[in-house]
């Protein structure tokens, strides 16, 4: 996947994660976006080699919540 394709993929993956966080948070959307883009999860998600983009938004949201609560997250087992 080239860089443009990967950027387009991220543009499709991130909004549903932000939407899920917004639904389950008291923070305003701008603050949520800022926090998400500063997260370890986003840093890893934005690296194509991590392959985190293979996971769906709900799984990535859960991983983000784990990061917020514990400071880390684990990769879900592949089915």
Give the helices and strands, then pairings.
Layout: H1 3-23, H2 29-37, H3 40-45, H4 57-70
Helix pairs in contact: 1-2, 1-4
Summarize the structure.
This protein is mostly helical and 79 residues long. It contains 4 helices and no strands.
Descriptive terms for the model:
single chain, 79 residues, mainly alpha, globular
Main beta-sheet strand count, sense and barrel state: none
User: How much is the average pLDDT?
Assistant: 93
What pattern of helices and strands is seen along the backbone? HHHH
- SS-based class: mainly alpha
Q: Could you walk me through the main structural features you see in this protein, from its secondary elements to its overall organization?
A:
This protein has 79 residues and is an all-alpha fold. It has one domain (14-70). The chain contains four helices and no strands. It has helices at residues 3-23, 29-37, 40-45, 57-70. α1 (3-23) packs across α2. The longest helix is centred in the N-terminal third of the chain and has 21 residues, at 3-23. The protein is globular and about 35 Å long. The relative contact order is 0.14. The model has no long low-confidence stretch (mean pLDDT 93).
């Amino acid at each position: 996947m080239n860089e443009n394709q990967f950027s387009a993929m991220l543009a499709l993956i991130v909004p549903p994660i932000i939407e899920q966080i917004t639904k389950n948070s008291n923070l305003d959307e701008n603050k949520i976006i800022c926090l998400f883009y500063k997260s370890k999860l986003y840093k890893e998600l934005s690296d194509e080699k991590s392959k985190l983009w293979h996971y769906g938004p709900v799984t990535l949201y859960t991983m983000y919540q784990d990061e917020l609560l514990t400071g880390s997250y684990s990769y879900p087992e592949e089915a």
